[in-house]
Q: What sequence folds into this?
């Protein structure tokens, strides 16, 4: 079961890095929308509901918000995956929380969430975190 816990930690780190990369790409799309907004304002486009500036502003705000959420979500996975591999009890609880939310992110989040729950809620998996400092220090 120790190998499964390590694998869940690695998967959380990989999932977090990929999610953060998606967030960074969305941020670059938001910056592109801001550039369109700035060029429309420089050109002196008339204000109105059908204006390019309104669409570009809405797009920039949407991509910026989604980018920040994705970067934070990815960083949380990395921040939990590293201490999970070190058998920190709090990391187990946080990994279960992230896994429960990941279940709604089809298809890969569902697989990661179900696997994390299976490993971390299993009695053998729980036991790895009960006396974590003693087992981890004697293994070195």
A:
């Amino acid at each position: 079961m120790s190998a499964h816990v390590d694998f869940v930690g690695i998967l959380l780190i990989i999932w977090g890095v990929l999610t953060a990369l998606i967030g960074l790409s969305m941020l670059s799309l938001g910056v592109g929308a801001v550039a369109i907004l700035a060029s429309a304002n420089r050109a002196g486009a008339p204000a109105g509901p059908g204006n390019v500036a309104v669409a570009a502003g809405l797009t920039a705000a949407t991509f910026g918000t989604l980018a920040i959420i994705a970067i934070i979500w990815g960083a949380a996975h990395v921040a939990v995956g590293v201490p999970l591999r070190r058998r920190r009890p709090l990391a187990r609880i946080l990994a279960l929380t992230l896994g429960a939310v990941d279940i709604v992110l089809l298809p890969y989040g569902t697989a990661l969430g179900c696997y994390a729950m299976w490993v971390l809620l299993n009695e053998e998996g729980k036991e790895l975190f009960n006396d974590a400092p003693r087992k981890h220090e004697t293994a070195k």
